[in-house]
From TrEMBL, chain B:
One of its GO terms (molecular function) is transmembrane transporter activity. This is Branched-chain amino acid ABC transporter permease. GO terms for biological process: amino acid transport. Signal peptide: none annotated. It comes from Bradyrhizobium rifense. It is a multi-pass membrane protein. The chain crosses the membrane at residues 6-30, 37-57, 63-81, 93-116, 136-161, 193-215, 227-251, 257-282. It is found in: Cell membrane. GO terms for cellular component: plasma membrane. PANTHER family: ABC TRANSPORTER PERMEASE PROTEIN, BRANCHED-CHAIN AMINO ACID TRANSPORT SYSTEM PERMEASE PROTEIN LIVH. It comes from the Bacteria. Keywords: Amino-acid transport, Cell membrane, Membrane, Transmembrane, Transmembrane helix, Transport. Belongs to the binding-protein-dependent transport system permease family. LivHM subfamily.
UniProtKB/TrEMBL annotation, chain C:
This is ABC transporter ATP-binding protein. Involved in beta-(1-->2)glucan export. Transmembrane domains (TMD) form a pore in the inner membrane and the ATP-binding domain (NBD) is responsible for energy generation. Gene3D superfamilies: P-loop containing nucleotide triphosphate hydrolases. Keywords: ATP-binding, Nucleotide-binding, Transport. It holds the Pfam family BCA_ABC_TP_C. Residues 1-32 are annotated as: Disordered. SMART domains: AAA (SM00382). GO terms for cellular component: plasma membrane. The keyword ATP-binding applies. GO terms for molecular function: ATP binding; ATP hydrolysis activity. Residues 46-294 form the ABC transporter domain.
Automatic annotation (TrEMBL), chain D:
Residues 6-246 form the ABC transporter domain. PANTHER family: HIGH-AFFINITY BRANCHED-CHAIN AMINO ACID TRANSPORT ATP-BINDING PROTEIN LIVF. It holds the Pfam family ABC_tran. Transmembrane segments: none annotated. Keywords: Amino-acid transport, ATP-binding, Nucleotide-binding, Transport. It comes from the Bacteria. Involved in beta-(1-->2)glucan export. Transmembrane domains (TMD) form a pore in the inner membrane and the ATP-binding domain (NBD) is responsible for energy generation. GO terms for biological process: L-amino acid transport. This is ABC transporter ATP-binding protein.
From TrEMBL, chain E:
One of its GO terms (molecular function) is branched-chain amino acid transmembrane transporter activity. It is found in: Cell membrane. The chain crosses the membrane at residues 12-30, 42-59, 66-85, 91-113, 120-138, 172-190, 220-242, 254-270, 277-298, 310-331. Keywords: Cell membrane, Membrane, Transmembrane, Transmembrane helix. This is Branched-chain amino acid ABC transporter permease. GO terms for cellular component: plasma membrane.
Length: 416, 296, 304, 264, 348
């Protein structure tokens, strides 16, 4: 028996660094499962890569090409655009779509999006986590009052997605807020940072992407803004974002759902079993344990554990997409289980349910010391209770627009 | 009250970013001047040069040796391009050549990444991007250095084109390749030389931009910043490249800071194009561009 | 003359001036000339008054007056750079004179509106080829009638009766001219690949197809073999005789000019230095000095 | 050393590997000789001349057969630049000036081709200006804006600046005033006599061409069908009829045919 | 439309015959024999890009105005159709399509105005203003995407009257029909006086003006027509192919891709647009399949992709050298070697 993962990877083009890291980590973990455990309960995991260059239509092409392969477990595109183009298709084909750390916020609502899983962190939770971190740095949420925060966002739909939620949080906590756009690709930010300098904010939140991140750090240095008051979001938190900035990045802080570093047991096993057998996916071994690589590893853990969960119910065999969905909807990894998986400290925990497809991931903050990331905070919980109604408002609107019936329970979404 | 200090800061910041655009634009101008074609591979060459250099350095080559090696490679590239692309396409319409440079950019980009990988590299060229303050205005050392380099290049090329016969033959080749052949100009040499020089300019631009952006794929996108510079200054004017660069930089930043807020920001991407367009309607071949010679 | 038969027939209404097909002998031609000249002052087909044109200091034309009578073949000759082409460019509105007026019939212009030129019945050829290289010869010729097509593009696509009728008419006209000018063999070839001489012929066809009232020819016979020159000049003459076209001709082949034209104006350094019948011009010492040289036949004496 | 400077044997040429423009052309130019190429429009004169100057590839044309020998060397694979340095200098049909360069700059480019010193250039320039006073007046004008005849003068002057040994002229008299034509031919004849300049010339103005040249070749449909001393050809009846315009009855409605000549 | 099938002499040509056969196969065989993958991921994008290329060819190939902003008009078409559908209840799909094309045409005309003054690369670079402005506006103003936080739009179900097109084959047939009809209409336009005017303006603007071609109208017609076609292609791209699109999908690369198609296929040749589109869609897929099959075990997908990049770039250069007039000329030459030469008529 085999369980198949079609991979819409991107190893070329502007986002190649992220793609090689993430898919490298994912494949490394799948390899580990096969080598170390002989598969998930004896079911081998297989995969096939299709290069997308991060382009939607190439992603769709790969989808159409690979979708009919038997035993497809789940899709993991790591691209908002591709994910969007797939929502209708995977819903029709009844295979889960995993958008770890990215994707539509409202797809958290499993009642409306039964097959979409923005695992660990959606953009709103990320925003809330950020603000909670700043509050903790200031010594409490009440201390945010009167503070000034600038959000510097990438001029794309991704960048703009959190504009309203930042506004809500600003109103709620009473900090003043300015949101400034950096046009794509973001290789010039002189005017934005001059405006920031004039605004004299306490913090700058960097909601960047690709080349925008190092340029932001460099330009911040040019206008004399301290790096340790710049907080990067989840797509501004990798080594690739800071290394090009050189010294300017020293002290920069970024959010993450998974710590970096190779000291975690699971990574050590990957190094030994996979790289030892010369089956490692990364060309450059120095990148083992980097942010994107670890995200790939965590993504691998979540996918494999979802299969394991589903196998417990449906039997140790090749599962259908719907059965894997069931597995994801019951994916409960508490800290103890995470530790058993050798990932204690790598990520905190997850508890996905049929209606909460994010699974309430916690975030932590890491600081760049010039050569590596160091965790500088506890695992912080976003304000889920505050966010849930907002998400539901959006998802029910979507359901109405598209004529989707809202699920009332975790049963098979189609048979209802 | 209007904040003049800030205005000046924005203006200077804009002018200095503009110089960085000029660095890229010069490469375009050189090639346009000798073949009448917009070389879309300039961005790829920039990436290739910077990537080669940084990879050599990371593999332990001393700075100067890496620089020399990259220089040699860029010259070889220029000559190779002449052999394989330009020579067979002599006397073809500009759009055909334009397309060929697009194909070329595929080849160069692919080769660069294949050779050196897709990782993101930091690049330290020994000039820090830290600011110092002059009358309350922060100025970065790297910017100043870039300005000096751009100025130097422009002066060099301008003198070259004005006072040497090679300059004259460059212009002749761009005008009419068929006639150039007929009078015995050695097109292969002219093109080989120019592409090699464009390669060197790409290296200079690549290093300076790489120091700011990091050496990564996005480096090839800086060409988009150079295009409005070209139309504003004139495709075939070296001086235009620098004046255009300054103008574009200033326009962009002032527009973003003072006009942007009315649109919700982010207008930088097109502001320069729109201004350049408005300007072109008055002078259809840019500030310093050669006017179209056409009579019946 | 035997060749008359092969040239454009008249299809449209009567020409502006009665034509005496029968009187072909030289004397009667001279008579006609005088008659035309007399008529000039009454209503010239084209009048240029005090035209001056400079290009950044270089005076291309200075105070040039020129009158062209209806139905006349009017040659303009002069040394290279004398301003002949510039004159035509002014008449076709491509240059705007610094001073002076251009008069077509009763219309008078500071600058002639080029876009309406064809509609006014003016056609021209160019000194350096100005064909549409990417169109077939047939289509090039048909382009001479572009101004006639008034149907909007939707009607053209849908083939409305009006659009179709015009298209058919234009095709027929083009076909006819192509037949007369012996371009049938090449009518489907791209114009750009043809030999120089043939391209010149296509240009003439493009100008003739519109049956212009005023035809401006800028060195139409350059690069054409001698025999063909004779033939083409017949066509030019017949454009006048059968269509009643008025023709302004610039040409350096002085033999042709003298044979073909009713009156000749001579420009030198932008000034008109002589104006008169071919015989007068041939004898004018100023013209000989500036332009013709001693041997004005083609048999240039080369033995020095 | 043979006294044949250029010989073309059985030349065949195509465009785009498809359209055959020249089938079988043979001609030769001796040192110090002037050879005229005559033929109707489309006979293949320009193609032949461009083949001699190695310019066909730039127009996507190819030499498909035959040999071209210059000064004892087969020049089939030589580059145009090399040929110019060897002394074959073309004046192209349709002028082809560098439009945006001034007249004087155009002339100077002719000298760059042979890597001349500036002093030599100066004196050569003066000679060209002497031949074409009109150009002197317009030395600073953008050549693309000058009159047709001025451009033609510029093109010829530019070629002379290269100090050719074999000047290849494609319709040099086109668009030039009679006086200027006389002047040019006189000057070329003089160069021919004094400096032993050889000339290959295609010319529609056959009377002038036959008077001017020592030898002539007649092309028809891409073949050389007749050749001989110009004096002899001048009195040849068919040549008279077709190229000198002397025939009284020829129906101009018919396209000129030269089969009768070919049969001779 | 009967006059389409005839040449000047009134006889149907071999070419018409081939087109006829092609259409019969495209309708009669492909939808039944093709797999979903072939229909959805290869043929539909091929058709849509071919239509866009036909549009750009009208402007660049025929009328000689180089544009680098085609993707902008794709985007305008897509977003216009989406908004019309959303905001005008009950609007029939075909009308929606035409209106969206019309809006693209209107915007195209606005951005075409500079063409009256600008030439060559100056104009080309100026069209980038359209490219960046449109993309910016679509991202900036949430209204265009019905305030979707990600700027993404979802396509409605394609429905004409009571017939709906939901399967891959149905969507393919829908696209095919639109593309065929519009291509034929374009062909008619190009064979009419307007088509000749385009070429005249391209080849010699002054001469065109002298013979009475209305320059302003002709250029704007070219911009309008071209943007209309590209706009409709944009609708198909969004509604029939991807079914959800974001503004980032219409970036400069897409514009270049379309320009690529027409130059590689052959400027001023509609057949060339199709051949070029086939090349650009199919060839990379083929290459990556072959690469993966042969070398997939040895190299990772990144290396393969990069090598493909190089191969495609090199091929483009090789093709241009072999025949600067594009694949279609290469094809015609090969064809005429087999069959006796045809004289060129108006190139299509
Ligand atoms: N670039 C080209 N592509 C295709 N065919 C061409 C090309 N140039 C010339 N030809 C063809 O080659 C043949 C010979 O042309 P060529 O120009 O050599 O004639 P020519 O004798 O110089 O005529 P002319 O006296 O009119 O200048 C003609 O049939 C012409 O159509
Ligand atoms: N657009 C222009 N810009 C600058 N100078 C011009 C322009 N047009 C013409 N001239 C100049 O005006 C003068 C007259 O040129 P024109 O072309 O009218 O001469 P021409 O009589 O036709 O000569 P040819 O017999 O050589 O064709 C020339 O000296 C030319 O350089
Ligand atoms: Mg003239
Ligand atoms: Mg010729």
């Amino acid at each position: 028996d085999e369980q198949f993962f079609p991979l819409q990877s991107y190893r070329v083009g502007p986002y190649a660094a992220g793609g090689t890291g993430f898919f490298g980590g994912f494949i490394d973990y799948l390899n580990l499962i096969n080598i170390r455990d002989g598969g998930v309960n004896g079911v081998k995991v297989t995969w096939d890569e299709g290069e997308t260059q991060y382009e939607v239509e190439r992603g769709v092409e790969v989808y159409e090409r690979l979708k009919s392969r038997p035993g497809t477990a789940a899709w993991n595109p790591l691209s908002v655009g591709i994910a969007y183009a797939m929502i209708d298709r995977i819903t029709k084909d009844r295979v889960p779509l995993i958008t770890i750390n990215h994707g539509r916020t409202d797809s958290t609502d499993g009642r409306v999006f039964p097959y979409v899983f923005p695992l660990l962190l959606n953009p709103y939770s990320e925003t809330s986590g950020m603000v909670n971190y700043l509050a903790s740095r200031e010594g409490g949420r009440d201390k945010l009052k009167g503070k000034k925060i600038v959000v510097l966002y990438h001029g794309s739909p991704y960048g703009k997605e959190t504009i309203p939620i930042y506004k809500l949080l600003a109103d709620k906590y009473g900090f003043s807020l300015e949101q400034i756009e950096v046009p794509h690709p973001g290789n010039e930010q002189q005017s934005q940072w001059l405006s920031i300098r004039r605004a004299k904010p306490d913090y700058v939140v960097l909601r960047g992407w690709g080349v925008m991140n190092p340029v932001a750090l460099k330009t911040a240095q040019k206008v004399g803004f301290p790096a340790d008051h710049i907080i990067g979001n989840v797509w501004s938190n990798s080594e690739e974002d800071v290394i090009p900035a050189g010294d300017a990045a020293k002290g920069y802080i970024a959010i993450t759902t998974q710590a970096s570093g190779a000291e975690y047991p699971v990574l050590q096993q990957v190094i030994k079993a996979v790289y030892g057998a010369n089956k490692g996916n990364l060309d450059d071994k120095k990148r083992i344990g980097s942010v994107y690589h670890n995200l790939g590893i965590v993504n691998g853990i979540l996918n494999v554990e979802a299969i394991r969960t589903a196998q417990a119910k449906f039997g140790k065999r090749t599962l259908t997409g719907d059965e894997v969905r069931w597995g994801f909807e019951h994916l409960q990894l508490d800290p103890a289980r995470v530790e058993a998986l050798g990932a204690k400290g790598l990520f905190h925990s997850i508890n996905v349910t049929w209606d909460n497809h994010e699974g309430d991931g916690r975030v932590t903050f890491q600081q760049w010391d010039g050569s590596k990331w160091k965790v500088v905070s506890d695992w912080i919980a976003p304000d889920w209770a505050f966010l849930r109604p907002i998400i539901e408002k959006s998802s029910t609107a979507y359901a109405k627009e598209h004529g989707i019936k809202i699920r009332a329970s975790g049963e098979d979404p189609v048979s209802q | 009250m209007f904040d003049y200090q800030f205005l000046i800061e924005v203006l200077i910041g804009g002018l200095l970013s503009g110089v960085m655009y000029s660095l890229v634009a010069i490469g375009f101008v050189l090639i346009y001047k000798t073949s009448g074609v917009l070389n879309f591979a300039q961005g790829a060459m920039l990436l290739f040069a910077a990537l080669t250099f940084v990879s050599l350095v990371e593999r332990g080559t001393p700075f100067v040796a890496a620089l020399a090696a990259t220089l040699a490679i860029m010259i070889a590239l220029g000559i190779a391009v002449e052999r394989t692309v330009l020579r067979p396409l002599v006397n073809q319409p500009p759009i055909t050549l334009f397309m060929a440079t697009l194909g070329l950019s595929y080849v160069i980009e692919g080769a660069a990444q294949l050779l050196w990988g897709t990782q993101v590299h930091g690049l330290d060229i020994g000039i820090s991007d830290t600011p110092f303050e002059v009358a309350g205005v922060l100025i970065s050392r790297l910017d100043l250095f870039a300005a000096a380099v751009a100025g130097g290049l422009v002066a060099l090329f301008a003198l070259f084109f004005r006072y040497t016969r090679t300059g004259l033959s460059f212009r002749a080749v761009a005008d009419d390749q068929f006639a150039a052949l007929a009078v015995g100009l050695r097109l292969p040499r002219v093109w080989g030389a120019v592409w090699a020089v464009a390669g060197i300019v790409a290296l200079v631009g690549g290093l300076l931009w790489g120091a700011r952006l990091g050496v990564q794929f996005s480096l090839s996108l800086v060409v988009l910043k150079a295009l409005p510079v070209l139309v504003l200054g004139g495709f075939d004017s070296i001086a235009g490249a620098i004046v255009g660069g300054l103008l574009v930089g200033a326009i962009e930043k002032l527009a973003e800071v003072y006009v942007g807020p009315f649109f919700g920001g982010g207008i930088e991407v097109w502001a320069a194009y729109v201004v350049a367009l408005g300007f072109l309607l008055i002078r259809p071949s840019g500030l310093f561009g050669q006017k179209l010679v056409e009579r019946v | 003359m035997a060749t008359g038969a092969g040239v454009l027939r008249l299809e449209e209404g009567p020409p502006a001036e009665p034509i005496h097909q029968s009187t072909r002998e030289r004397d009667s031609a001279t008579q006609r000339r005088t008659a035309r000249v007399a008529q000039t002052l009454a209503s010239p087909a084209l009048g240029l008054a005090k035209i001056s044109l400079t290009f950044g200091g270089v005076a291309a034309l200075r105070d040039v007056d020129l009158e062209v009578a209806r139905g006349e073949i009017r040659a303009v000759i002069g040394p290279n750079g004398a301003g002949k082409s510039s004159l035509l460019n002014i008449v076709s509105g491509l240059y705007r004179p610094d001073r002076g007026q251009v008069q077509f019939g009763e219309h008078s212009f500071d600058q002639v509106p080029t876009a309406r030129l064809a509609a006014h019945g003016v056609a021209r050829t160019f000194q350096n080829l100005a064909l549409f290289k990417g169109l077939s010869v047939f289509d090039n010729v048909q382009m001479g009638l572009a101004h006639r097509v008034r149907a909007g593009f939707l009607r053209q696509i849908m083939g409305s009766p009006l659009a179709r009728r015009i298209e058919e008419e234009n095709r027929a006209a083009a076909k006819e001219v192509i037949g007369f000018l012996h371009l049938d063999d090449v009518q489907d070839c791209f114009a750009g690949t043809l030999p120089y001489g043939v391209q010149k012929r296509v240009e003439l066809a493009r100008a003739l197809v519109a049956r212009p009232k005023l035809l401006l020819l800028d060195e139409p016979f350059a690069g054409v073999t001698l025999a063909e020159k004779q033939e083409l000049s017949q066509h030019v003459r017949n454009a006048r005789d059968s269509l009643g076209a008025t023709i302004v001709l610039i040409e350096h082949d002085i033999g042709i000019v003298m044979e073909l034209s009713d009156r000749v104006a001579v420009l030198d350094y932008g000034r008109k230095i002589a104006d008169g019948t071919p015989d007068q011009i041939r004898a004018d010492p100023a013209v000989i000095d500036a332009y013709l040289g001693v041997a004005h036949e083609d048999d240039t004496e080369l033995a020095v | 050393m043979s006294d044949v400077l250029l010989s073309v044997e059985g030349l065949a040429a195509t465009y785009n590997h498809a359209i055959r423009a020249v089938n079988d052309v043979s001609l030769s130019v001796r040192r110090g000789e002037i050879v005229a190429v005559l033929g109707a429009n489309g006979a293949g004169k320009s193609t032949t001349l461009q083949a001699v100057s190695a310019l066909l590839p730039a127009r996507r044309g190819q030499v498909a057969g035959g040999r071209i020998v210059f000064d004892g060397h087969d020049i089939a694979s030589a580059s145009p630049a090399k040929l110019v340095r060897a002394g074959i200098v073309p004046v192209l049909e349709g002028r082809h000036c560098f439009r945006s360069l001034t007249v004087e700059e155009n002339l100077i480019t002719g000298a760059i081709g042979r890597d001349a010193k500036s002093r030599v250039i100066r004196s050569d320039l003066d000679q060209v200006y002497e031949l074409f006073p009109r150009l002197k007046d317009h030395r600073g004008s953008i050549s693309g804006l000058t009159s047709g005849g001025e451009q033609q003068m510029t093109a010829i002057g530019r070629a002379l600046m290269s100090r050719p040994r074999l000047l290849v002229l494609d319709e040099p008299s086109m668009g030039l005033a009679p006086l200027v034509v006389q002047g040019i031919f006189r000057a070329l004849k003089q160069l021919n006599r004094e400096q032993n300049l050889s000339i290959l010339i295609a010319e529609q103005n056959s009377r002038v061409a036959l008077r001017f040249s020592d030898h002539a070749v007649v092309l028809e449909n891409g073949r050389s069908v007749l050749s001989g001393a110009s004096d002899a050809l001048r009195t040849h009846d068919d040549i008279k009829a077709l190229y000198l315009g002397g025939s009284p009855q020829s129906d101009v409605g018919e396209k000129p045919r030269i089969h009768a000549v070919a049969g001779l | 439309m009967a006059h389409l099938a005839r040449t000047k002499t009134g006889r149907p040509t071999a070419e018409t015959l081939w087109i006829g056969i092609g259409i019969v196969v495209a309708y009669g065989v492909v939808p039944f024999a093709g797999s979903d993958y072939l229909l959805d991921a290869v043929l539909t994008p091929f058709l849509v890009l071919a239509l866009a290329a036909v549009g750009l060819n009208v402007l660049t190939g025929y009328a000689g105005q180089v544009s680098l902003g085609s993707a902008a008009f794709l985007a305008v078409g897509a977003y216009a159709a989406y908004n019309l559908h959303l905001r005008v209840p009950g609007l029939p799909l075909l009308l929606d399509l035409v209106l969206a094309g019309g809006i693209a045409a209107a915007i195209g005309i606005v951005f075409g105005l500079p063409s009256l003054r600008l030439r060559g690369f100056y104009l080309a670079v100026s069209t980038l203003a359209a490219q960046f402005f449109v993309q910016w506006a679509l991202t900036k103003f949430g209204w265009f995407s019905n305030d979707n936080p990600s700027g993404v739009i979802d396509a409605p179900v394609l429905r004409i009257g009571s017939v709906s097109f939901t399967t891959a084959a149905e969507r393919y047939v829908f696209s095919l029909t639109i593309v065929v009809v519009l291509t034929l209409l374009t062909l008619l336009l190009l064979r009419s006086q307007s088509g000749r005017n385009f070429i005249a303006v391209r080849d010699h603007e002054i001469a065109a003006k002298v013979v009475g071609v209305p320059l302003l109208r002709t250029k704007l017609l070219a911009f309008g027509m071209s943007s209309f076609l590209i706009g409709v292609a944009g609708v198909l791209w969004a509604f029939a192919y991807l079914r959800t699109v974001e503004p980032a999908g219409f970036n400069l690369d897409r514009s270049f891709q379309i320009l690529f198609i027409i130059i590689i296929g052959g400027l001023a040749s509609l057949r060339g647009s199709f051949i070029g589109a086939a090349f650009i869609v199919v060839f990379p897929l083929l290459l990556s399949r072959i690469g993966a099959a042969l070398l997939g075990r040895v190299f990772d997908s990144g290396v393969l992709e990069m090598s493909q990049h190089i191969v495609i770039g090199a091929l483009i250069i090789v093709f241009l050298i072999a025949e600067p007039r594009g694949l279609i000329a290469l094809w015609d030459r090969a064809w005429s070697a087999v069959r006796p030469a045809r004289r060129p008529t108006i190139p299509t």
